[in-house]
Design brief:
The complex is a heterodimer of chains A (993) and B (294).
Chain A (H helix, E strand, L loop, with lengths): L2 H19 L25 E4 L9 E10 L8 E7 L5 E6 L17 H6 L8 E4 L6 E4 L2 H17 L6 E5 L7 H9 L4 E3 L6 H11 L4 E3 L6 E5 L9 H13 L3 E5 L5 H4 L3 E3 L6 H14 L5 H7 L2 H8 L7 H11 L5 H8 L3 H12 L5 E5 L2 H5 L4 H14 L8 E3 L39 H6 L5 E7 L3 H4 L3 H8 L5 E8 L11 E4 L8 E3 L6 E7 L2 H8 L18 H12 L23 H11 L4 H7 L4 H8 L1 E6 L18 E2 L4 E4 L23 E7 L2 E3 L14 H5 L25 E4 L16 H6 L5 E3 L1 H7 L6 E5 L3 E9 L7 E3 L6 E3 L9 E9 L2 E8 L42 E7 L9 E4 H12 L5 H4 L30 H22 L1
Parallel strand pairs in A: 7-8, 7-15, 10-11, 10-13, 11-12, 15-16, 16-17, 25-29, 26-28, 30-31
Antiparallel strand pairs in A: 1-2, 2-3, 3-4, 5-6, 5-17, 9-14, 18-19, 19-20, 21-22, 22-23, 23-24, 25-33, 27-28, 27-33, 28-34, 31-32, 32-34
Helix pairs in contact in A: 3-20, 4-20, 5-15, 8-12, 8-13, 8-15, 12-13, 22-23
Chain B lengths: L1 H12 L7 H9 L7 H11 L4 H5 L7 H13 L11 H17 L3 H19 L3 H11 L2 H21 L7 H4 L12 H7 L2 H4 L5 H11 L8 H11 L1 H21 L1 H4 L1 H23 L9
Helix pairs in contact in B: 1-2, 1-6, 6-7, 7-9, 8-9, 13-14, 14-15, 15-17
Classes of the chains: A alpha/beta (993), B mainly alpha (294).
Chain lengths: 993, 294
Amino acid sequence: MDPRLDEIAERVSAARQAAAARGETFYPGPSRIHLAAFPPKERWDNWVELDSRAWPKRVEKRFMLVPTTCFNCESACGLLAYVDRDTLQVRKFEGNPEHPGSRGRNCAKGPATLNQVTDPDRILYPLKRVGARGEGRWERVAWDEALDDIAGRIRTAIVEERPNEVMYHVGRPGEDGFTERVLASWGVDGHNSHTNVCSSGGRAGYHYWMGIDRPSPDHANAKVILLISAHLESGHYFNPHAQRVMEAKQAGAKLIVFDTRLSNTATHADLWLSPWPGSEAAILLAVANHLIATGRHDREFIRRWWNWEEYLAAEEPDRKPTFARFERRLATLYADYTFEFAAAESGVAAATIAQVAETVAEAGTALSTHTWRSAAAGNLGGWQVSRTLFLLNCLMGAVATPGGTYPNAWNKFVPVPIHTPQHPHTWNELTWPVEYPLALNELSFLLPHFLKEGRGKLDVYFTRVYNPVWTNPDGFSWIEALTDEALVGLHVALTPTWNETSFFADYILPMGLGSERHDVHSYEQYDGQWIGFRQPVLRAARERTGETIDDTRSVNPGEVWEENEFWIEMSWRIDPDGRLGIRRFHESKEHPGEKLSVDEYYGWMFDHSIPGLPARAAAEGLSPLQFMRRYGAFEISKGVGAVHEQPVPTDELVDTHTDRFGRVYTAAPKPAAVNLAPTGSPEPDEDGRRPVGVLVDGTVRRGFPTPSGKLEFYSAMLADWGWPEVAIPAYMRSHVHPSNLAADEMVLISTFRLPVQIHTRSGNAKWLDEIAHTNPLWLHPLDAARMGIGEGDLVRVETEIGYFVVKAWVTEGIRPGVVACSHHMGRWKLGDQGQRSVMATVALDHEGDGWDMSRKKGGGAFESADPDTLRIWWTDVGVHQNLTFPVHPDPISGQHCWHQAVRVRKAEPTDAYGDIHVDTARSKEVYRHWLELTKPADRFSPDGSRRPFWLMRPLKPARAVYDLPTAAADPGTAANVAGSQRNRKDKRKARTR
Amino acid sequence: MRARADLFRALGALCEPPEPGHIAIAAAIGLPGGPASGDYAEVFLFGAYPYASVYLGEEGMLGGEARDRVAGFWRALGIRPPTEPDHIAALLGLYATLIELEESEPDKARAALARSSRKALLWEHLLSWLPAYLDKLMEIAPPYYADWARLLGDALIDEAADVGGQTELPLQLRAAPGLPETDAPSADWVQALLSAVRTGVVLTRFDLRRGARELGIGARVAERAYMLRSMLEQDAPATTSWLAAEASRWAIRHQEKEATLGRVAVFWRTRAEASNAALRSLAQAVPAAARDDR
């Protein structure tokens, strides 16, 4: 060995040890090979880079790197804001390497947060309408005036016992439970989400199985990944998931993708299937049948964890339930789902489906599967897509295994907050109507119809980062409802930017973007739990320099606020003297009687509710809040594993009772919750013991939060509430099944995203708009030739209630007989206000029930403080197709079934690009037709309740208000309800004996 | 031993984009001056790309089978390959890890396995190309990176002495085809000229610029293949002769390493000699293009 080299090596080693002793990173490169390009964290206070704009001169720029969380999609990826130390302005956003989910990597939407911050068209001050609602005239108003007006109306509604007239309607929540608790503190059942136009179908399928409504696939460790989604390019958690899917592929995993379109994800698949829309469940059941028929399923897992005994008790009540008998039934249950049957339904070759089945069979317990919206959001019965997809996991035993799919609640952490208000004692029929007792989420998209039918009215209606006029189907019915002040007394739009719904508001209150507000998040992205902290980065930067910031408005642009402070202030103004019992939930604990600050809110949470965080922070000499402000994220645990298998500790087993299917109830009080991640909440037994676990081979194990404690292959709930024919995973023919289409009808797929855009939230990002700004109609060459349509030709797409005129894109990336158009484009504005880069200026004509929209001007260059807006080269900003869709509520899940049966033909000579016509009388007829498919609780409830109590529900009300009113107008119905309520206890006895 | 691991990890860190953390590392090593982004870009982004696949691959480009073989080595060790498994920093980091593993492993058999893995990595994926690459770097880089290259070269040779010689030629070299036979410079042939393992010649953009200058023809500012095509289009016989002379010089450089690198250096010399011969005969065969403003 060369002594000279040894001497150098010793010097390096000593320097490395000295750096480690100081808690610093010595090797910024190869010691972190994957993330070699990130600034080491100890230099985040003073990071030096050359100023690219000064090139070729070498001018050094000094930055503070401040973490926050992206607010564009639901992934909650970590961002690092580069705050210029000289100007205290954000110069760019990059990935946060300390974030366990995104691991420093971002999609295009993360860095584009900078565009949103500097957008010349953003709303910087509170606005109040002048003139009629929707007229487009606004005046600047002081925050105090707006707050007093709105709070006064809410207070009056609460005092006058009209709590259901206060509603908060949210698009992207971007947080875990803060606002729900605000509403609970007001005692209103006023939470309304967008979820029934999004993921309710997918959620329902998962929830009915496992009592938890989201999957958490462990893609990175999978051998086979099956996606019914475009998850390498878009969708919830796509960035954190995509990087793990690619890791698995690099390690040899096979990727199977079902997507009628040739998506970017499909191009990366080992097996891509382009099924007829709505046939996905038929293919999945054919795969299931193959697994069962060839004995490749995990029999032991099924024996231990499926509720087969309950199934047999329902199917063969007079015979002893044995697993052998169940297996005999299982062997024939799906025998009709041959590859040939699935091929006939889907149009995919039987041999390809067989190849999928064999690939899945080889996965063992390392099968990760995922669907979220896609087919589950497109079809009548779409919830059976996620249910039959998860059936494959349940057959393979690939549930909560390395490389398998976990219930999300085990890979998510929702900390206990400083105050927890009680459940509201009221039930809002406008969001949870009697027709949809099993819906996973609010029937939000039916709201205009409910209002116009006289089911209720709204006195104060908040839309918050939500754009129902544009996003929801049947937007003209929304405009009709929003412009009727007898139906909506006051409409407050909480939004960082203009949107089509805000045009019909009374107040527009500017709320911060991802780098201008506080929130905490946690999402299932691998087998671990993390929490991410969003913060106003300029506030954090200035606090690093020693300033004290009490009000985020003082650091945000203009008078842009953040919601935490806004809701606390609003709650104080609703209940200024505390007599309504609201203010106490928004008071300081440190200084009783004073307003709660965000520092105390999060400081308390991080001190008390996040296991391991205080110790980790202390190791760096920081408080937990300082730690989160510095790093933006914390990993609580990794390798959570199979929670259902955990034995229940004996101290939780007190005076237990075990029902005939093995569900174990205990008299021991529930330990204080550590993690509030939402799950189902199975009911106690008739003596009030709480369900604690399930008996499996003689051991009480934690099980799943379902009534049975097991994976519910058989849903007694569906059978009891009027749907016995779908009590087990099944294939339901979609409303766009070929048998439901006229000869000249095609299917329109409208649900897919453009990879760099995110609904209407990203229209204020110039970089993203330049990449994606239009939405042509995907049309197969065979269809195009049949109709005589060429590339770029105008076509008229006729739906049940109207039509839209769009350009054709002739492509083999779609099945013949199916057309597709992304819902991401077609933004519009009525006048001067709006996003000029991506909104067309339109004229609206309205006569009776007829509505017409025509384009006056496309997008284009304009002069502003940002010179780039003069460089806008595109004018085509797409067509707003959702306006022409009627509502299609699935009678079980409540999900809007997006796929449309349409007629496509060459445009008329008088048609112009972007023309839209809709008849809202017709949309009402379609609404009524779908309503007739339902099985309302007042006729089908087995126990007199509005809804199964165990089902998850946002802002869950108190148990008592689950009872249907017994003094219903219809005496027959009232008698039924009273009778079934009397029977409730008897039924529970029957189950638990 | 542990200190040696630190040395290789530190040397690996220094061929990543410069950052303030490199100052302390460079000072510990004793490199002259400090890291500079401009120098880094000149050397590694425009000059000599720090990836094994560029020098060991058939096309002289990133990726391909040469990178797959490196990735396969990571996998054989049970480690998921990083995004760029054949970057010098990744390879040196892995080498350091194997040194540490060998030292910390109490089980003798496992320690021996770690040592044989380390030896395999050294000969198969480091010494198979780095001596020629580092030679080129010392020629073209400013003092900071030239010294880095010299030190890394010395350390690798020292390691070779420590772990012992290799009985068989590395697969990366055995699997590499030579120059294709041709009587006219086709696009494939031009691409092959850029593959060091096929020609025995490390040809950077700096070299091509120098060549154009020496021949008095125009140097197009572009990637290597474009530059070389442009030179051949301007004056094929002169360019081919110039390449032959380069190969001849490289044959001598490789020969000087035979004492320490044995058959690996012999392989490289043989490739350079074959290139020299092929290029010379081609130079006589190809017609001279119309020459303009010489």
